[in-house]
Design brief:
The protein has 13 helices and 15 strands. By secondary structure, the protein is α+β, with helices and mostly antiparallel strands. It has two domains: 184 residues, no CATH class; 186 residues, no CATH class. The strands form three sheets. The chain has a six-stranded mixed beta barrel. A three-stranded antiparallel β-sheet has the order 2-13-12. Helix 2 runs antiparallel to helix 12. The longest helix has 44 residues. About 3% of the residues have low confidence.
Length: 415
């Protein structure tokens, strides 16, 4: 018996009890739909994380003071005192003779502060930064201009507003450029507004106010002095090409260890993390998250498979006499086995097809109602379809085997 003939017989058998077939397929439909919908949430989360890291800039190294990972190599001891990073460190890294293949360097000195305009007051992140900060961190100015070197040299009281402070401090019909705001009770003149970027690895990138780094270190906050230079919170290093990331990271490590007078047996008092490292860490988390969601949804597919087995067992019982007749006219055991296996697989595949449409609609519904980014990928559809076919095959084996083993004489006597 050919597969095509088996499929035709299977469809005819399912058409005899349409309601029962539909109810049986319902478990598969819900299972496949749940797999696709939940995987679309996981994939959407992965894409969101990738977009946020891409929004930080390109080919970036993040240099932090202190050790993020206290586990050092064997034979080296941890330093007792952590030295802060300074503007001098940033200048040394920017020196092409010391660290080649560096496109740009931007130091940042940031603190939480209060911004006031009129009767409106809110807490925000105040970022002291040089002009290079705009390109290194991939910020776009939609109104006015960014901080210039002359304003850094003069320690000017000027500010560039992030999208969120601009929206909350000014009405839609107000023009913020040239207006005065107060940061920690110190008046600043607004010279620019940044485009909206959304959240990121270092918090909400829209909820910031950027001022000259010299102003932040001396006039608004009191930055500590280390090795004759003012301290900074973090140093961003933009590398010329992705291939040079590891080499630049090694050179930056050598320069900072020499400047901080760290013994060869001591651990670094700073940490260097690449953008790809951050993406990998969060990527591993989101991958596990996606697998867990898929596994949870897969349980409903198993439940649907149990429903298929139950119906197929009932079908074998109802069609015992038919099986006896088929065997009496020459059908072999494998023909009966194939017939019922194909019937179970057809049942699950039809349910899987409807489940794909159901899962796609669910992903759209989740995206609209919960404001989540969902992505339906081809591999999720392939996985759900393959799994539904496998469920039909697995849970159809026992009923098919039971039908194939029926004795034709006993089957013909069955009433």
């Amino acid at each position: 018996m050919s597969l095509l003939e088996s499929a035709r017989i299977a469809l005819r058998a399912l058409a005899v009890n349409k309601l029962r077939a539909v109810l049986t397929m319902l478990g598969i439909i819900i299972g496949v739909g749940a797999v696709i919908a939940l995987l679309s949430v996981g994939y959407g989360f992965e894409d969101y994380i990738s977009q946020q890291f891409a929004g930080l800039g390109s080919n970036l190294l993040f240099v932090f003071p202190g050790q993020l990972d206290q586990g050092g190599p064997p034979g080296r001891r941890t330093t007792a005192r952590v030295q802060p990073l300074t503007l001098g460190d940033a200048e040394a890294i920017a020196d092409p003779f010391q660290v080649p293949d560096v496109a740009a360097v931007a130091a940042e000195y940031s603190r939480q502060g209060t911004v006031v305009r009129g009767g409106r007051e809110r807490s925000t992140q105040i970022v002291g930064a040089p002009p290079q900060f705009q390109n290194v961190r991939n910020f776009t100015v939609i109104e006015g201009e960014f901080i210039g070197q002359d304003q850094v040299n003069a320690r000017s009281r000027v500010a560039v507003l992030g999208a969120k402070p601009a929206r909350e401090l000014f009405d839609a019909d107000e023009y913020p450029i040239g207006q005065t705001i107060k940061l920690n009770d110190v008046p600043f003149r607004v010279i620019g507004v940044l485009a909206e970027k959304g959240g990121g690895a270092f918090g909400n990138q829209d909820d910031i106010i950027v001022i000259p780094i010299s102003t932040a270190q001396t006039r608004l906050f009191k930055a500590p002095v280390s090795r004759g230079a003012l301290a900074v919170s973090i140093i961003y290093v933009q590398v010329a090409s992705p291939e040079a990331m590891d080499q630049v990271a090694d050179r930056v490590t050598d320069v900072l260890r020499e400047r901080h007078r760290i013994s060869f047996r001591d651990d670094d008092d700073f940490s260097i993390i690449s953008q790809s490292d951050l993406i990998q860490v969060f990527g591993n988390f989101t991958a596990v998250f996606t697998v867990v969601l898929g596994a949870i949804a897969g349980i409903s597919l198993v439940v649907g498979g149990i429903g298929i087995m139950n119906i197929m067992l009932v079908s074998v019982t109802e069609r015992t006499r038919e099986i006896g007749i088929r065997k009496a006219v020459g059908a072999r055991r494998r023909d009966i086995l194939l017939q019922f296996l194909v019937e179970a697989i057809v049942l699950s595949m039809i349910g899987g097809a409807f489940g794909i449409a159901f899962g796609y609609l669910c992903s759209i519904l989740v995206a609209n109602l919960a404001s989540l980014n969902t992505v339906v990928r081809a591999d999720a559809i392939l996985l759900a379809t393959t799994f539904s076919a496998a469920v039909g095959l697995f849970f159809g084996i026992y009923p098919a085997t039971r039908a194939a083993r029926l004795n034709p004489i006993d089957a013909l006597r069955y009433e």
